[in-house]
Here is the input.
Amino acid sequence: MFRLDPDTFKRIHPIEFHRRFLANGIRPDGRESLLSWRTPVVHTGSITTCNGSAMVRVGATAVLCGIKAEIAVPSAAEPTRGFVVSNVDLPALCSSNFRPGAPGEFTQSISDTVQSVVESAVDMDGLCIEPDRAVWVLYADIVFLNYEGAAMDAALLALMAALRNTRLPSKTVYSPTDGTVRASSDLSVPITLKHLPVASTFGVVEAGGGRMLMADPTEDEDAIVGSRVSVVVDALSGDLMGTFGGHIPLELLEQSVVLATQRAKEVGQIVGASK
Amino acid sequence: MVLQRSDGRTDNLQLRPPTTTLSPLSRADGSARFAYGKSAVLAAVYGPKEVRLRDELLDSAKIEVLFRPLVGLSGTTERLYEKTIREILESVILKHLHPRTSVQTFEGADDDSSSLILSCAINATILALMDAGVGLKSMVASVTCIIDDSNQLVLDPSAEEIKGAKSVHVFTFDNVSKDVTSCVSTGVYTYEQYKSVFEVSQSACASVQAVYRQTMENKVGGVETVDEE
Amino acid sequence: MDSVDRKRIHGPDKSVLPLPLLDSQHESVTSKTTLNPSARFDGRTHEEVRPLFARTAMVSQANGSAYIEVGCIKIICAVYGPKQITTKSKSGDHHSGGRISCDVRLAPFAGLKRKGYMKDTNEHSLAKNLATALTPSLLLAHLPKSQIDIHIQILQATAGHVSASSTSSATVLPPPSFATNLSLLLSPCITVASLALADAGIEMMDSVVGCSVGLFRRTDKNSLFWMVDPSEEERETRALGGGVWVGNAVVGVMPSVGRISGLVVDGDVGDVGVLMEAVNVCVDACAKVHDVVVKKALVDGFHAASSPVSGSSSAV
Amino acid sequence: MAVSVCEREFTLTGVASNIRSDGRGRSDVRAAAVESGGISQASGSCRVSSAGGTTVLVGIKVAVGAPAVTASTAADADLDADIAVDNSEDAELSISDADLRRGRVVCAIDCNPAIIPTMDPRAVEDLCIDFSEVITKILNADHGGLDLQSLCIVPGSTCWVIHVDALVLGYGGNLLDTLFQATRGALHDTLIPKVTVEESTSASTGNTSYEFDVADDETEDLKGCENIPVIVTLFKIGHHHVIDPTPLEEACSDVQLSVAINRKGLPCAIQKTGNGSIEPSQLAEMIQDAKAHGATLFKDMDEAIERQRVRSLNDTK
Amino acid sequence: MAIVTPGERLGLNGEFIASHGTVEIGDHIYAAVVGTVTTTPSESDGERLIIQVVPKSKRNMAASIPEVSSIVTGKVLRVNPRMATLSIMVVGETPCADNFQGVIRVQDVRATERDKVQIYNSFRPGDIVRAEVISLGDSRSYYLSTAKNELGVILATSPAGATMIPISWEEMVCPKTKVVENRKCAKPVDA
Here is the structure.
């Protein structure tokens, strides 16, 4: 028989490579069970050009979120509602799977999902400066620096940590004559977050004749992941804030919600410890 | 207390009878129109057909989905819809039967109101695939539910009802394995609410699948009568 | 930009930064002009560069990568390849050796005002000058038919706006405009990219170190003087140390072989004598950076690189 | 362009012994003809054709536009400028004041790939973009000579935008220098309509508003044209360097140094291109040489432009 | 052991013969990659030692790109009567940064009876093949050859989904269905 070293084997036959790990219930990155997670590490405030920023690492995945506050006119329908504009960027820098240029379907759908979650998490009315005239718009740009899976989980975590880190000027003055807003130079007022959503992604894998959940699959493990589901749970209340998933048996979906609720509490504490 | 919904239905768990039209397009390999109330989607299927070299897959058909809103250009939400539909199709189509080919589907939304359109698009696409004769493992059907501001579960909401909803759920179920084929939920909701959404959606999907069956039977029946003539 | 980018999430059509409150405007912007003419803000000598932090192997997905921090500037770089050239070129070209492609991106939050995702000419010219400075160091003849992709993401390009943590400095600096700031970005880009290439194991003659030098005209006399690695404050406060900013030079140096691989000069930099003096000081500064920072980062990266573990050999 | 070993050796030896294939020495230039004012519908134009075959036509169009925010693309600048206009004071935080009080120059170069058959069409395109960036950067800078402040109409909102459109008609090497010569010539030829600005302060809001009027028949010269630098590109071939190279010589060169020389005869912008590296001592030598060539080029250009001026004056008489 | 970085002077080229990971400039030999220096006696030149710089981990391995005579491993993408197209994934023992394209032309499949070779009886899409690079080929593909005993298909999956077992140098059998298929099999080196 041919002897191949692990790197070569993984490269030429990724499915078989991962299947053998799966059969033993372990993971190539050293995790000891299918349901163990990579513990996120959160650092905040490293980018000083921002009102708030956070760097999150989940295993090798590294993502940086910077938030910049600007002033805009609110929409006529909702005169006190501010804006949060969150974009996820997976540049060619972070993995060879992404090409330079316009974002692909994957990136766009993550942006859209993150945006829909964050809109219900932030107290938008708290961003109002002068009803019908001026509100804060928070531009959140989430840039991946290294991509090893957990796109949705890491992106949302970085966004929420950065929002918690965001400070707005303590004093804003709206001038009705010329429509300008003046703000004090200190940044001291945090924004109000109604929820602390935490996303947990599971892959559905086939093992031993049945299907089971695999928590937090890496990019490489995609080779054997049939479909995936991301469950977003509010770490503060335990309420669900979104599920986005593909083909999954009902009982696994229920299991994933239960597991995600447990994990949200743990991750919530990590984010809560950051400032 | 008699409940009155904005479009005259009297029960929160009442499904509007979907309207379906099969083969409205003559040039596509298969096409179908599916509508819940005013929200309608026209789907067209082309394939299996020749694939571009760089998209070629060694052992299965390449599935491409293109979703277009009625007005305006498509944005990130449409990409999310496309991804959702494509993932459903990849689990449903017997794609390994047609290696090195592509199956393309196009969905044109007839109404831009919210998540309801995703359900319509999924259903229209499945009908169009059946119309095109593309081999499927099972029939999947999709419904939309909301939890309204009084924490009531409302099935098949109208556009106005969705606007005031606390959470919106789009569920797609398979008729063979009874698995969830796709779920997209947004908003804030509890686990108990989520579970009740499961149950309601699952039975509603079964009735949509009955509509599929009826639609297809009409078609096959129609062909037979033509043959006899 | 006639049409909106439909592939991103958009907020309101137009948004602006707030104006400073009137009372804060009275803070003196030019308070630093009274400084001792010979001293620099941070007490460096004219030949001294700012402390530099660099390390390699930051992006596990890439073949090589590096990160650099100079003052407030933070840059990450990843190298992918060598890979097969996919675009067709004129016949005969593909045997002549490999080529590099550089892509420089500013993160939307890297500057003071948020920048959109559309690539602008600043990024384009940074990438071009970077490629010019790197190419001479690489032994591309060893890589026929191949291309090396160098991706740079600038995470922070300027000092922060007056944030809560830094109000102690109490001075509101005049905002730097990006165009004038670019050359300050080019030199760390060169250093970090060369580090990433070395980390990727791409064969090279020497690593390239970038260094910039600011040229000033003395206000009292009509002579020029220079300062190596000017910080943003030094550059924007144009009346520094009794001098007026007249121009700057960015030099890419291969320190071991003592050659210059990249050079961009802007402004009325006076006669060749002064300019060459400044360039030579840059060459010396680069040699120091190479010995102290670059080598250490590479050696540290080498020690850290453990052979990948994923079980024993598998038989097929 | 692929060069065979023999061709390269021939060129290198020639350059080393100071005899180039067309008989010139290393520092000899080919004669160039400068004709300005050929295009009547442009605000200014100039055609430079070198004896080596490089022919360039530059047309200048001046238009009323918004001041630059950064030296970014025109489209980008327009968008940002919109914001600046509406809320001009906001600009203080992101744009330096000086940028709002001056006009700007936008340059675009067009070259049919068929004109440079030895290069890849995409490489030709890249070359055009690179050159247009070089020209745009120099002309918009303080050291670019042009009096951009004089192009300001309403501070912060309106100014003259000078569009430089260059067309490459023939290629025989030394394209950048020729392009810049032609641009310089065309700017000398450029006339801008006179503008009168009226300032009014509304009593109710205290805001100042401006109205301006562009004259139909009155024009004035562009200020500061004579101070625009010249670009001299030196091509290092082997251990020596040449100016005004042929396409073959360009292909044999591993380092190119483009030096902008101002009227004082001093360098004001330098850019190194090419795949090779250079020793500091040779760099100094090259810049010195560029200075010398720059001074000659200034003299030649001045003479050529003066001749054109005299001719056009005679024509109008 | 001392670690050298690119640009570090290793010695005069009168003393050493420059090998992998080094570069000669003028009279001197410099390191071209980060790694440790090793010297080995040369067989042809008794005076000088061969000097090379060895990178430690595979990740930092210099340039895993195919060169003439390197052994590569790849997957068959498509076949036609004239050639089989491969996606080269591994060069020597090192996985490449990105896949390279290679072709095995019908005349390069085996060393004997070249005129009787049929591509379809040698390779099928999806097979993993070990081959040698015989030339840098055209602008699109490297030219590969399997005309040696130890070269050829090393891994093939049958239509039934099982990994096939080689039973001779030109046949493989599916362990599930016992169907025999033709392949140009590689001879296991250490079996």
User: Anything to note?
Assistant: The CA atoms of residues 62 and 114 of chain B lie 28 Å apart.
